[in-house]
């Protein structure tokens, strides 16, 4: 059951770092947007380049240690994710776990073949939404559709969001689809795809690892729900969750990851 996670106290932080340092193998599941990357930051903004370098730096420091597997589990398109994390030695799960890539391989594996007949009626609805509110935009991924409205004040988009939700819920009755009401976005994707399924792929490979998982949205609850009891789960940003601990933002998570990566962290 989801509840309010505990704030990460200095004592719990020390205990996590100690367990991390002592572990024979470490396995980290990290969401990208809102978890490693600041929520809503415009990727064309001057700040974005510096943020991108910070994210890459902390991931590189984590993967440089032996016996450490980092998995980025994101809703992003797999080509975008591949480019963002190129050369960093981390495994990737893209488009909510439809595509998986092992850390030491360059090729992607698609977890199942997906029928896309549903995209024809769904695309019409997404295009209508985009045209109704011009500063919003529609993203078509190979196996999902997304309507983004983060550039629009909530009061201007509220009514349209409600209409879209209702129309897309109808489609989920006709096709095996899942509707995600995200932060400033609506996404429609195959029902069988979720981040928990992707997480299990690595959990099976690395049993007896010390596990840390972090995420900020509903889709990340699927990661938390499949973790063993002794794993450390972290909700980034306030809200109810299956996670044990709470951190306020991406910066706080990156600080913790930097401490974990550093062998000389003082406790
Ligand atoms: Mg996120």
What does this structure look like?
- The protein is an alpha/beta fold and 267 residues long.
- The chain has two domains: 175 residues, HAD superfamily/HAD-like (Rossmann fold), CATH 3.40.50; 72 residues, Hypothetical Protein Ta0175, Chain: A, domain 2 (Alpha-Beta Complex), CATH 3.90.1070.
- 39% of the residues lie in helices and 22% in strands.
- It has a nine-stranded mixed beta sheet, sandwiched between helices.
- α7 links the parallel β11 and β12.
- α2 runs parallel beside α8 and α6 runs parallel beside α7.
- The longest helix has 21 residues.
- The chain is globular, with a radius of gyration of 19 Å.
- The mean pLDDT is 94.
- Bound molecules: magnesium ion.
- The site of magnesium ion has 7 residues, from loops.
Key terms:
nine-stranded mixed β-sheet; globular; binds magnesium ion; Hypothetical Protein Ta0175, Chain: A, domain 2; alpha/beta; Rossmann fold; four-stranded antiparallel β-sheet; 267 residues
Summarize the structure.
This protein has 267 residues and is α/β, with parallel strands linked by helices.
Number of structural units classed as domains: 2
Shape: globular
End-to-end Cα distance? 33 Å
Structural class: alpha/beta
Overall average pLDDT: 94
What is the level-2 CATH architecture name of the largest domain?
3-Layer(aba) Sandwich
Q: Output the radius of gyration.
A: 19 Å
CATH topology label of the largest domain: Rossmann fold
CATH superfamily of the largest domain: HAD superfamily/HAD-like
- Which ligands appear in the coordinates? magnesium ion
Proportion of residues in extended strands: 15-25%
- The portion of residues assigned to helices is 25-40%
Query: How many separate helices?
Result: 8
Name the strands of the widest sheet in spatial order: 1-13-12-11-2-3-4-5-6
Runs in which pLDDT lies below 50 for 5 or more consecutive residues are none
Q: How would you characterize the largest beta sheet?
A: 9 strands, mixed
N-to-C order of helices and strands: EHEHEHEEEHEEHEEHEHEEH
CATH top level of the largest domain is Alpha Beta
Report the count of strand segments: 13
């Amino acid at each position: 059951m989801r509840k309010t996670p505990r704030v990460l106290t200095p004592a719990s932080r020390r205990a996590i770092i100690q367990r991390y340092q002592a572990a024979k193998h470490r396995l980290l599941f990290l969401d990208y947007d809102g978890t490693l990357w600041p929520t809503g930051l415009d990727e064309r903004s001057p700040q974005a380049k510096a943020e991108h370098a910070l994210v890459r730096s902390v991931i590189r420091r984590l993967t440089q240690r032996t016996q450490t597997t980092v998995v980025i589990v994101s809703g992003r398109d797999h080509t975008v994710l591949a480019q963002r994390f190129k050369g960093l030695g981390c495994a990737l799960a893209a488009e909510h776990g439809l595509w998986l890539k092992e850390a030491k391989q360059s090729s992607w594996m698609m977890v199942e073949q997906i029928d896309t007949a549903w995209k024809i009626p769904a695309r019409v609805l997404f295009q209508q939404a985009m045209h109704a509110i011009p500063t919003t935009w529609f993203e078509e991924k190979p196996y999902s559709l997304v309507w983004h409205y983060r550039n629009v004040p909530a009061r201007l988009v509220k009514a349209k969001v409600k209409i879209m939700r209702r129309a897309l819920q109808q489609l989920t009755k006709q096709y095996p689809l899942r509707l995600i009401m995200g932060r400033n976005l609506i996404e429609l994707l195959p029902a069988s795809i979720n981040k928990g399924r992707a997480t299990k792929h690595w959990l099976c490979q690395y049993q007896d690892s010390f596990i840390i998982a972090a995420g900020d949205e509903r889709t990340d609850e699927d990661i938390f729900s499949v973790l063993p009891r002794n794993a450390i789960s972290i909700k980034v940003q306030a809200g109810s969750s299956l996670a044990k601990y709470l951190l306020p933002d991406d910066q706080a998570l990156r600080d913790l990851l930097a401490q974990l990566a550093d062998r000389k962290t003082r406790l």
